[in-house]
Amino acid sequence: MNANDLRPGMVIKHNNDLYSIHKAEHRTPGNLRAFVQARMRNLRSGAMIDHRFRSEDTVERAILDETEMQYLYSDGDSYYFMNTQNYEQIRLHKDVILDRAQYLVPDVLIKVEFFEGRPVDIQLPPTVDLKVIQTEPGIKGGSATNVMKPAKLETGLVVQVPPFIEEGESVRVDTTDGTYLERAS
Known about the structure:
Strand order of the largest sheet: 4-3-2-1-5
Number of domains: 3
Helix content: under 10%
Shape: flat
CATH class of the largest domain: Mainly Beta
Mean pLDDT: 87
Structural class: mainly beta
CATH architecture of the largest domain: Roll
CATH topology of the largest domain: SH3 type barrels
Distance between the termini: 44 Å
């Protein structure tokens, strides 16, 4: 495919490695040739790199198989997932999961992406429900203002929540930017 067609979320082969596109901007600086500035994550090492593709460059899109899996538990540097169809379990190293571990709670369903039979990446659901384990006490009438307070969640993630949220409640968090969305029932 043409480099102009790069979009966030795509996985490509580049320099014999797999890369996940995080950002792709098409630029045409003045009287120079157009190019695509891409921010990509190496799926093997987890390193983020910036690469400039010329508009006429072709890139090879990697074909990935997605399998819905259930997160089971973590054990040190390893995270364990179970295929919901055949109950087969796989282990992924923390270098694959990276900071997305903050959104993993037992039994959450995610998509694991496989390339040539090997797990290479995970896709989180758009939102997860997490329990508040530490926050300041609520303020009466606090919902009348838009002031937020920090709350530590069960996975260690800290998000800004409205003042009426108290310890022990569950909140819905957006996994793309780690922000509070609403109280979870």
